[in-house]
XdhC family protein
Amino acid sequence: MQHLDLQVIDQALQWVADEHEVWFCTVLSTYGSAPRAPGALLVARADGAHVGSLSGGCVEEEFLASLAQGELQAPAQIVRYGETDDDRRRLRLPCGGILQVLVEHHRPTPTWHSHLLTLQATLQGQQRLLRRVDLTTGGAELLPDHGGEQTCLKGEQVDIRIGPALRLLLAGVSPVAQACASFARALGCEVIACDPREEMQGTLIEGIEVQPVLPSVFIASGACHEATAVVALTHDPRIDDLALMEAVRTPAFYIGAMGSRQTSAKRAERLQRVGGLDEKQIERIHMPIGLDLGSKTPAEIALSVMADVLRVYRGKTREAL
């Protein structure tokens, strides 16, 4: 499973290689309730073939209809959906939502192909960049990212922050890990699972083949970027502890391990004594993992885990919930 926006870039690259012109769309802002956040992508061809999502269906139909009628030919333009009561009824946008979408029309040039390759590398975690689009010419450039809003419109210039796709790294396979994978896919995450145990060889989690290596080895190879969540959910310290020892040395934004408070206290002591982790590194690990929802079943525990991952990713404190 790839993050949906990675699929968009991959498809755009294929179409450019096949000499197709494409329309590249980015959600710039939402007002009210909207299914897709700023930065979400969609790519389409003139014949209506498309990959990605702007709203979950309703706005896509309107966009593709405009494309079929020969509209949206400008190199770059901003299109607003849901501004009027008639729009909202027709498009079925929830709660009076309004979408502002950047639509770029690109022909299959070497420059555009190179631009897409850099976007692909960025979403795969190699770097963070600022994508700047000139609404007058349609020209796009990639600059160093120094933080700020996800998208920003300044006169005839649009700035879009591009970063790694949210990645969930499952350190070991368990019923809870399998449920986490299901929730993560629904959230649009890239999911990677590692487990060296022989009985897990050839196992599939939500269509993802389990990597037959120790999670710690996989993590040490450079698998974690700043949009990676590492979750250890096996109750096997030979897998969990080693993964945690490596994960705290990476920029992963979330690191967690399953277990009771008593088990977590013992693990913290073990990681300090055996793994040599200091207090600051221990504090990075969410132990016990997840929100306290009173979860009992694997699915309930997985829900609490993914809710906590999303909470941290969105910058929310527990007190703010």
About this structure: Residues 298-313 form the longest helix (16 residues).
